[in-house]
Amino acid sequence: DALRTEAAGRGGAGPRVIYAGGRAVTASPLLRSMVADATGLPVVCPPGADESSARGAWVLAVQALGLTPSPPEGEGPTTLPHPGAAAAYRALWEELVGLNAALPAVRCGA
């Protein structure tokens, strides 16, 4: 919701999909499912997503040359959110924020 709210404030409609990269995400259907459920958005791992650091370096190099990098071709696995899961995560988040506010401030070394 925060991503959609911020984008709407800038005149955009907000994200419709999350492109994820990194070996942890590409190797874990559970992690992709949790991200999809918490955000209410599909999570897509484009081809080569497990090598996202190398792709990021390539994008920066291409941009440094004044060129426009091309997006990844094709689509990898897509994980869809479970209906109603985003609302459940939002309720849990609000509960966590309330509990955090109720706790006294903890200072290290005090």
Describe the structure.
- Strands 1-2-3 form a 3-stranded mixed sheet.
- 11% of the residues are buried.
- With 110 residues, the chain is mainly α.
- The protein is extended and about 50 Å long.
- The N and C termini lie far apart (37 Å).
- The model has no long low-confidence stretch (mean pLDDT 79).
- Helix 3 packs across helix 5 (85-102).
- The protein has 5 helices and 3 strands, in the order αβααβαβα.
- The longest helix has 18 residues, at 85-102.
- The chain has helices at residues 2-9, 23-27, 29-39, 52-64, 85-102; strands at residues 18-19, 43-44, 78-79.
Helices and strands in order:
Blueprint: H1 2-9, E1 18-19, H2 23-27, H3 29-39, E2 43-44, H4 52-64, E3 78-79, H5 85-102
Parallel strand pairs: 1-2
Antiparallel strand pairs: 2-3
Helix pairs in contact: 3-5
Brief descriptors of the model:
110 residues; mainly alpha; three-stranded mixed sheet; 5 helices; 3 strands; extended
* Major sheet: 3 strands, mixed
Low-confidence stretches: none
- Major sheet: order of its strands? 1-2-3
Mean pLDDT: 79
- Tell me the quaternary state: single chain
- Structural class of the secondary structure composition? mainly alpha
For the terminal residues, how far apart are their CA atoms?
37 Å
Query: What is the strand content?
Result: 5-15%
Annotation field: number of helices = 5
Gross morphology is: extended
The overall strand count is 3
Order of helices and strands: HEHHEHEH
> How much helical structure, as a percent, in the residues?
40-55%
Query: What integer value in Å does the Rg equal?
Result: 18 Å
